[in-house]
Design goal:
There is one protein chain. By secondary structure, the chain is α+β, with helices and mostly antiparallel strands. It folds into two domains: 140 residues, no CATH class; 103 residues, Immunoglobulins (Immunoglobulin-like, Sandwich). The protein is built from two helices and 17 strands. The strands form four sheets. It has a six-stranded antiparallel sheet. The chain is globular, with a radius of gyration of 21 Å. It comes from Salmo trutta (Brown trout). It holds the Pfam family C1-set. InterPro entries: Ig-like_dom (IPR007110), Ig-like_dom_sf (IPR036179), Ig-like_fold (IPR013783), Ig_C1-set (IPR003597), MHC/Immunoglobulin (IPR050160), MHC_I/II-like_Ag-recog (IPR011162).
Length: 273
């Protein structure tokens, strides 16, 4: 059975260089994406860390506050005004997206179709890696993470097996997130209790792959695992979120005073498919 998907993608990247001192610069990206075959998405990133995103039904012309999700740490206070402003930005962006898709349909050459078999356009195949969230201890519940990166177009499909048998419980799949080069990344996780010699496999399917790409994780007989490296990664991630949050607050404060320390560049970036 052949599977065919139509994608019309127009992405606007708003890049701001925020100068908090003479030597430090930070990037603010406001990104919206249109997919003719699925719902539009809107988001704000600072130095690569997501601040908020909005998901909307493609048949809806209005934005509800509940449609906007802030991904800052929970201890940061988000005011009703922040949510309302984000909602307004997201709604306006959705209108722009519709206009861009209409323009794209009238352009020459026409936006082509992407096919699962017999590719007619350049696609980016995903890379993936699998690792445990915490240091592995036999018999202690943990989480396996399958990180999928550098793919275009979204989404990917991730399947898990344990000792050759398909796993259907304890699974979760994140939204897909944009990378700066126009590709995307996504996380799939599996709750598991490690037992000696168990073998877990995550298989990633994508339109650019003829066959799913697999990654294997085998539980060793000892309790030792890559815990220190994972903890280091988690600590670094939390540190970056803290920096992004601080810059977000600085950005809001300085914008109110119309500081001359900002330089803005608006770039229309279109991923051709």
């Amino acid at each position: 059975m052949s599977l065919e998907m139509n994608y019309s993608v127009i992405i606007l990247i708003l890049t701001g260089a925020v100068c908090t001192s003479a030597e430090i610069h930070h990037e603010i990206h406001f990104i919206y994406g249109c997919f003719e075959s699925s719902d539009p998405a809107v988001g704000l990133e600072i130095d690569g860390d997501e601040v908020f995103y909005g998901d909307f039904n493609k048949n809806s012309n209005t934005c509800l506050i509940a449609d906007v999700a802030f991904t800052l740490p929970k201890f940061i206070s988000i005011t009703p005004e922040d949510k309302e402003r984000a909602c307004e930005y997201a709604t306006i962006s959705r209108v722009w997206c519709k206009d861009c898709i209409a323009w794209g349909k009238q352009s020459e050459p026409k936006i082509p179709k992407i096919k699962v078999s017999g590719f007619c356009c350049p696609l980016d195949a995903p890379e993936s890696t699998i690792y445990p969230r915490d240091e592995v201890e036999l018999g202690v519940e943990n989480t396996l993470i399958c990180f999928v990166n550098d793919f275009f177009p979204p989404p990917v499909k991730v399947n898990w097996t344990k000792n050759g048998m398909e796993v259907t419980e304890g699974l979760s799949l994140s939204r897909y997130y944009p990378n700066k080069d126009g590709t995307f990344h996504q996380f799939s996780s599996l709750s598991f209790t490690p037992q000696k010699e168990d073998v877990y496999i995550c298989a990633v399917a994508h339109t650019a792959l003829k066959d799913p790409k697999t990654r294997e994780y085998k539980v060793s007989g000892s309790s030792a695992g890559p815990g220190p490296a994972v903890f280091c990664g988690v600590g670094l991630t939390l540190g970056l979120l803290g920096v992004a949050t601080g810059i977000f607050l600085i950005y809001k404060g300085k914008r109110a005073t119309e500081s001359q320390e900002y330089s803005w560049e608006v770039r229309h970036w279109t991923r051709e498919i």
